[in-house]
Write a structure and sequence with these properties.
This protein is mainly α. It is about 50% helix and about 10% strand. Strand 1 (about 5-10), helix 1 and strand 2 (about 40) form a beta-alpha-beta unit. Helix 7 (about 200-210) crosses helix 8 (about 225-235). The longest helix has 16 residues, at about 20-35.
Length: about 500
């Protein structure tokens, strides 16, 4: 086994990059970079029925967006370890399968799907855990020939030593051991279609690619003893395993694609206009924690401080509020033009800005995004945050009505309307609005929230948002006065 750290992320090209798989890739990447090792991406595409055409490219594209770089993959092959698709490694698996057959560590099983289903059903009815019972474990040559003459296909099963115990020191969970008899009966290593099964192919690939550590979700724990059996059968040294706890939703259940309230795929975060470095930071904290209380880190900082011994043994809770907080922290620090580039497509998609906007519209939209940058966690939020700029009708909530209906509220609304009406349109800019607000303060001795809140509600219809003078400037004189008129009607 290589003395240099070598880890891998091995996706199946069956769909988009799920956030759980992204976390696996990210932790392997951080582990490799922290230890000066190699991060490999290997495509596990032996499930021909479930593979989709763009599955592999989608995985790589979304990892690239997250700024997760790899050292080896289909697009960056190392001749010593290539190829990187399992479907292209059959020439490696076949002689090893034959070796196990020759050594009587594996055998051909001719049982049909119907026979296997019937066996499993009978075991369930007897209150037993379904497992292969070994009916074809010791066929005579004559029995095999009879099945061949029937035209039966076969799978190849690995002989399990039911008396054996398999133990390993898990990076995350500590000492784990399995009795082989509790794991499974003789399991399939080559399917009827000639493709190796996951447990066989992944073991062979990890060995021949000199993988030193395997970090993956703890839904793979049950696979580990099977893989250790194969390592043992060939006399190979297994890598160090680490099984990360699964991500759970806010109800404490395993994160499922049916959790409608949680966005599941990296592509969706891209489409919403999240900054990739914000999502990288958020995912890094799903099941791993640094020392201290700080939660915002650059990618370089995470590489430097990553410690696999701080991978959590408790489930990783998906905290949507933390995601929004992290997203907002990164948005506030981002260059305005970058935020505009994330937000602008959503204004177009919502029909609020034309498809081929004029330069004047682009400049206006840039200023609009700038007003809300401090509040945004991702680009698509601009549509809701800036809705008052596009809605023709204002509808005040009761709290706003109560605010404006107070004695001071009525005074402020009347005063700001008079002053903005007198302000020429060409002078309708923030730097001229501020002195007008100060005049109202001095003339009526109304200060602080009692001054600013009624003005904010009167011109926008809401109780929070950007700085009032900037808001007034961007809304423009006509819209501001129309808003004030609508507000007056609702409080009269």
């Amino acid at each position: 086994m290589s003395s240099k750290v070598r880890v891998r992320y091995a996706p199946s090209p069956t769909g988009e990059l799920h956030i759980g798989n992204a976390r696996t890739a990210l932790f392997n990447y951080l582990f490799a970079r922290h230890h000066g090792g190699d991060f490999i991406i290997r495509t596990e595409d032996t499930d021909l029925i479930r593979n989709i055409e763009q599955g592999e490219s989608s995985q790589l594209d979304n990892l690239t967006w997250l700024n997760i770089e790899w050292d080896e993959a289909v697009d960056k092959p190392n001749p010593q370890y290539a190829p990187y698709r399992q479907s292209e490694r059959l020439h490696i698996y076949e002689p090893l399968i034959q070796q196990l057959l020759d050594e009587d560590k594996a055998y051909r099983c001719y049982m049909t799907s119907e026979e296997l289903d019937a066996e499993a059903q009978a075991q369930r009815e007897a209150g037993e855990t379904p497992r292969y019972g070994g009916a074809h474990a010791h066929l005579t040559p004559e029995q095999e020939q009879a099945f061949i003459d029937e035209g039966r296909d076969y799978s190849i099963r690995f002989r399990v030593n039911s008396e054996a115990v398999y133990a390993f020191d898990d990076i995350v969970k500590g000492d784990i051991s399995f009795k082989a008899n509790d794991v499974a009966g003789d399991f399939v290593i080559l399917k009827r279609d000639g493709m190796p099964t996951y447990n066989f192919a992944v073991t062979v690939d990890d060995h021949y690619m000199d993988i030193t550590h395997v970090l993956r979700g703890d839904d793979h724990i049950a696979n580990t003893p099977r893989q250790m059996m194969i390592y043992e059968a060939f006399g190979w040294e297994p890598p160090r395993f680490g099984h990360m706890t699964l991500i759970i939703n806010e109800e404490g259940r395993k994160l499922s694609k049916r959790d409608g309230g949680i966005i599941q795929f990296i592509e969706q975060y891209r489409d919403l206009g999240y900054l990739p470095e914000a999502l990288f930071n958020f995912v890094a904290l799903l099941g791993w924690s640094p020392e201290g209380e700080e939660e915002l880190f650059t990618q370089e900082e995470l590489i430097k401080i990553f410690d696999e011994n701080r991978l959590s043994n408790s489930p990783a809770a998906f905290d949507r509020d933390k995601l929004l907080w992290i997203g907002n922290e990164y948005m506030k620090k981002a260059d305005l033009q970058r935020v505009v580039d994330l937000a602008f497509p959503h204004l177009i998609k919502a029909g609020l800005v034309e498809d081929n906007p004029s330069q004047e519209t682009i400049e206006w939209a840039t200023r609009l995004v700038g007003l809300y940058q401090e509040q945004m966690a991702y680009g698509a939020q601009i549509v809701e945050l800036a809705s008052l700029f596009f809605n023709e009708d204002l509808k005040l909530d009761q709290a706003s009505i109560d605010e404006l209906s107070s004695e001071t509220g009525l005074v402020v609304v009347k005063a700001i309307k008079e002053k903005l009406t007198q302000l020429p349109e060409e002078e309708f800019v923030a730097e001229n609005v501020r002195p007008l607000m100060n005049e109202i303060r001095d003339e009526h001795d109304i200060r602080g929230r009692q001054l600013f809140m009624p003005i904010r509600i009167a011109v926008s219809g809401v109780m929070s948002g950007p700085e009032v003078p900037d808001l007034i400037e961007l809304l423009g004189k006509e819209k501001v006065l129309d808003h004030i008129h609508q507000v007056e009607q609702q409080i009269s």
